[in-house]
Amino acid sequence: MAEALSPYKELLNGVGIPQFNAIDGEAVNQAIPDLLNQLEKELETIEYSLCNQAKLGINPQWDEVLQPLQQIGERLRWSWGVVNHLLGVCNNPELREAHQKQQAAVVKFTSRISQSKAIYEALEALESQAAGLGKCQNRILQAELLAMRLRGVGLSVEDQPIFNQLSEELSALATSFSNNVLDATADWNLLITEEVQMAGCPQSLRELLAHAAQQKDHPKASAETGPWLLGLDQPRYGPFMQFSESRQLREKLYKAFITRASLEPNNNQILVTKILQLRQKKAALLGYKNWAEVSLASKMAPSVFAVETLLEDLRSPSFTSCIKELDDLRDMAPEATDLQPWDVSFWAEKLRLQRFNLDSESLRPWFPLPQVLDGLFDLCERLFSIRIEAADGGAPIWHSDVRYFKIYEKISNELLASFYLDPYSRPGSKRGGAWMDECLGRHRLSNGKLVLPVAYLICNQSPPLGDTPSLMTFSEVETLFHEFGHGLQHMLTRIEQPEAAGINGVEWDAVELPSQFMENWCYDKKTLTSMARHWKSGEPLPEEEHTKLLLARNFMAGANTLRQVHLALTDLQLHANWHLESGISPEQMRREIAKTTSVLPLLEEDSLLCSFSHIFAGGYSAGYYSYKWAEVLSADAFAAFEEAGLDDELAVQEMGQRFRATVLSLGGSETPQQIFEAFRGRAPSAQALLRHSGLLN
Fold first, then answer.
1. Are 618 and 276 contacting, i.e. CB atoms less than 8 angstroms apart?
2. At 120, which helix (H) or strand (E)?
3. pLDDT tens digits for 188-199?
4. In contact, 384 and 656? CB cutoff 8 Å
5. Where exactly are the structural domains of the chain?
6. How far is residue 413 from each of residues 126, 354, 588, 608, measured CA to CA in Å?
7. Residue closest to 31 by CA, chosen among 89, 105, 110
8. What spatial distance separates the first Cα and last Cα of the chain, rounded to whole Å?
9. What is the mean pLDDT of residues 11-29?
10. pLDDT at position 557, please?
11. Which fold has domain 7-154?
């Protein structure tokens, strides 16, 4: 008789869409240990069967190794993935404590699977039968073998426990790093009570800051009379730096932002050093010179030198361009002003207004979120022949902000996928930034039933205020399109091998291709016309405003590119060349790099590494360069549409179907190079990126 599942087990049983609101710290502490015990027994059964086959000289079959292994991995990914998801969007002390309590056991079991000799030997035996496997199966097999090697399957009996302890420590440190950034961001607030200190701030920002004050013991705060509460979350920080005429307050806010998580009680400085040290130790145990080599072993870029070459190709022209851009800002500023980092956004906005007559804040009323979604969905219907419909109430949610949608084939009405959209910033409980993650991946169950993809799409844009919808900055529009590009690759996949479906199995430095590709459409006239309508009058964005957006697209491109190069090169060099015996700290190494990647000198208190979550708490360690590597692919992919003719609707639709059939459908079943060439008909070229960025001579 099957064991009856407790309510807690049912909440984290690895099946279907989670019951988010019912999953709390107690559920995690009860369900995760039971799940791990069950999965351990299933793994032992698989290993026992494989060992017996090996003794009898029987060759293992795909369905005897990869399929059961995938089922175990998927149940753990689903269950622990829900916990991590909730930690990112509904963070609270109880959930944190439960996550911390169970994390080591989850990492330990993950290592247990990755280091199973019986499974590794069975995979090697399958490799000898490669001729009988399909292209996708061979890709999956090679990826699994490499992943197991990188997770220590080949280590000695003495080294493996050391390696596993390092993995557990690194996982805990990454969580602590992320929590420190979240807390440091949420804890810093500055109450503004004097009207003169709000000079230059647009009405939308005044309303947002007054609303923040209302949530913090000032229920009578108003946009007109205050008080106003400043914070370090992007919807408040970014516009204030852009529009505030108070140089003193901009300086204070900027310095608070660049010192996030560098001071007690949320100090990441020691964590930065420790994470780098532990990664270096893991690399040494695996036989690599440094962590950068470990990272690149599973990526598209062939070597550290190849990445450095790309970054230098971008650094040189962007550095020259950035010098000119900052000189232009100095010409705008008063003669007595010694241009400082907290001045750049402010004077850039002034120069943008003067040069293009483009007021970025005045564009907000034309980009209400509901209308932007309609435009995005219309674009996807044009390009990919899909229909997207709201399905609110059709699935459990974790917050009242969250919406739910379904995607159908336009012609056949076949249901393809669904997704959640959590669009608004919630400082204190939701981590900053924007991301796409997997709720469910496309795969078939053992009974043959097809499971359709479900995606999480998370943003942190300005929330609605009263009767006013979320009025988006153009940058927030681009971010939404970016994350939806990731979602499309996850949701439109046709691969049913879960290890290669959607974004799975796609090399990390190619995974940004569809996301960055989608950003280009924000500037497309037809797309812009369909989504840019005034939230009150319904009037379309005036033609001259569209023209201004196009003209201003590469405004400050040198500075923006140089910053990305600085971050990518810092990440790469820290993981390739820094070690404790270097005689310098990680921050000092970053400052050396900044001499050729930053035109303005770094401030003494600048502690950016302490909030660099991408590389210390995310998946981008020695991989931040991926944004630029993939941007070469995405720019070249969009150039195919330009060459076909953006005004030729039939050509655009035909190219869209081709993009869907290759980049969006094939996932990790082939190499990114093969998939790109199948779409483009040739190898990628960097010329389109340099042209789009305005960096060609």
1. no
2. helix 117-127
3. 999 999 999 999
4. yes
5. 7-154, 188-258, 269-358+557-624, 365-551
6. 40, 49, 58, 48
7. 105
8. 74
9. 90
10. 92
11. Glutathione S-transferase Yfyf (Class Pi); Chain A, domain 2 (1.20.1050)
